[in-house]
Design a protein that fits this description.
Blueprint (H helix, E strand, L loop, with lengths): L7 H10 L3 E3 L11 E3 L1 H20 L11 E4 L8 H6 L2 H4 L1 E6 L6 E3 L28 E4 L3 E3 L9 E3 L5 H6 L1 H7 L6 E10 L14 E11 L4 H18 L7 E5 L11 E9 L2 E12 L1 H10 L5 E3 L4 E3 L2 E8 H12 E3 L7 E3 L10 E5 L6 H13 L4 E3 L5 H11 L3 E5 L1 H6 L1 E6 L5 E5 L3 H9 L2
Parallel strand pairs: 3-9, 19-20, 19-21
Antiparallel strand pairs: 1-2, 4-5, 4-6, 7-8, 9-10, 10-16, 11-12, 12-13, 13-16, 14-15, 17-18, 21-22, 22-23
Bound molecules: glycyl-adenosine-5'-phosphate.
Glycyl-adenosine-5'-phosphate binds next to strand 10, strand 13, strand 16 and helix 9.
Length: 451
């Protein structure tokens, strides 16, 4: 019998049951568009961010044709001088069209009413129920406003950043002047961004508070096309390398009429979630648009003197811009596997680098000298890998819990261990069991995980 289709309901239920993702402020009824990560989700998200930082910044591959380039990081403030957002165009143009319904008092994105169920009659879409009474669309700026200092007037308005990118542009000169770097140069940042989405939806996919990982890659204008292709392909293969290997992952090049006015080329890495094909990351050749905008608004010279070319120019920028929370959701969706034959019925086959827990150590029973053998094995493993020890419940239930957490290997100390010194090692992916000498658990794990 074919496995039942993966649905968002199943994923949401598992995420809550096992502590991957919780609704923010749940005990007070939640708050739309905000989410919390539980113990397993926190480890998973950290692993994704660490993999990104390691693979893109610290240990990045060589560029096209083996070209060298440098990557460094910044960690910028969430609230910046509001002039940044005037220069970037966010104050003037970062908006979505919004309509209100005078009947149900709901607020909707005008361009999404055909896919949004009417709150009064969810079998119909907004605008299609006889009582729907929609206003004309008007633009709604997505930036969250706040005030700085004690006075709350027009002069104290500030914004929570809607993207991490502008912190990088605003610091381009600081980084170049302080860090003995030269172009081609990528500046990376991971951090929270905020957008007051009119309709947050599809679980964590469209949230009001989310994390981004962004790179602004500065290069000579003549080399931008080649670097764009490099980053587009590298970012796509990064996802496949971490386990998004199914044909649910796509790379889609934008057509000319889809491109933003400042962009020369753009592609999206998309994932086919149960709610449809949706963007995980965009890779764009943004030309010199952003730096020139900041030169104009700040009056500062942000051009770069290229000592090798003996030329001064405003660099072009390639921007791979991804959402960490969307990646978490894609990795969870891809890992979710239904298996009728096992006790948990469902398990998470995370890539070993991403698995929140890498191994578990179980004494079959909490007596007969088994915990005394299990404890030192656990102590040895946990110094190198996130590992759990569990001596309670039937062994089948303990395996089931580890299956749902996506733990690749479990080591069980049983009656035979005392006779011949071997332990059972159970593999998450096929539930197969093997026996290895108890002294080899850590070594076995290292060989199997390749991390
Ligand atoms: N600096 C360019 C930029 O911010 P974007 O396409 O608006 O581009 C980049 O955002 C990425 O940030 C998206 O591909 C997505 O992964 C993530 N993202 C954007 N809005 C989001 C939201 N409301 N909730 C979760 N992730 C979001």
């Amino acid at each position: 019998m074919a496995a039942p289709a993966t649905t968002m309901d199943k994923i949401v239920a598992l995420c809550k049951r096992r502590g991957f993702i919780f609704q923010s402020s749940e005990i007070y009824g939640g708050i739309g568009g905000f989410w919390d990560y539980g113990p397993l989700g926190t480890e998973l998200k950290r692993n994704i961010k660490e993999a990104w930082w390691n693979d893109m910044v610290r240990n990045h591959p060589p560029g096209p044709d083996g070209r060298e380039f440098q990557m460094v990081g910044v960690d910028c403030s969430i609230i910046m001088n509001p002039k940044v957002w005037e220069a970037s165009g966010h104050v003037g143009g970062f908006s979505d069209p919004m309509v209100d319904c005078k009947c149900c008092k709901g607020r909707f994105r005008a361009d999404q009413i055909d896919e949004t169920p009417c709150p009064k009659k969810p079998s119909k879409m907004v605008g299609q129920h006889a009582d729907c009474d929609l206003t004309e669309p008007r633009e709604f700026n997505l930036m969250f406003q706040t005030h700085i200092g004690a006075l709350q007037d027009a002069t104290s308005i500030a914004y929570l950043r809607p993207e991490t990118a502008q912190g990088i542009f605003a610091n381009f000169k600081n980084v170049v002047d302080s860090s003995r770097v030269k172009l081609p140069l990528g500046i990376a940042q991971i951090g929270k961004s905020f957008r007051n989405e009119i309709n947050p939806r599809n679980y964590t996919f469209r949230s009001r508070e989310f994390e981004q990982y962004e790179i602004e890659f500065f290069c000579h204008p003549e080399e931008a096309a080649i670097w764009y292709e490099f980053w587009r392909d590298l970012r796509h293969s990064w996802y496949t390398g971490l386990g998004l290997t199914s044909d649910l992952l796509r790379l889609r090049n934008h057509e000319g009429d889809e491109l933003a006015h400042y962009a020369k080329a753009c592609a999206d890495v998309e994932y086919d979630f149960p709610f449809g094909l949706s963007e995980l990351e965009g890779i764009a050749n943004r030309t010199d648009f952003d730096l020139k905008a900041h030169i104009e608004h700040s009056g500062k010279d942000l051009s770069y003197f290229d000592a090798e070319r003996k030329e001064r120019y405003v660099p072009y920028v390639i921007e791979p811009s991804g959402g960490v929370d969307r990646s978490v959701l894609a990795f969870i969706t891809e890992a979710y596997t239904y298996d009728e034959s096992r006790a948990s019925k469902e398990f998470m086959n995370f890539h070993p680098r991403l698995a929140p827990i890498k191994a578990a150590v179980f004494p079959l029973v909490a007596k007969d000298g088994m915990p005394e053998i299990a404890q030192p094995i656990y102590e040895e493993i946990r110094r190198q890998y996130p590992c759990q020890y569990d001596a309670k419940q039937a062994i089948g239930k303990r395996y089931a819990r580890m299956d749902e957490a996506g733990t690749p290997f479990c080591f069980t100390i049983d009656g035979q261990t005392k006779e011949d010194g071997t332990v059972t090692v159970r593999n998450r992916d096929d539930a197969s069991q093997d026996r290895i000498d108890k002294s080899r658990c850590l070594e076995y794990l290292r060989d199997q995980l390749h991390i």
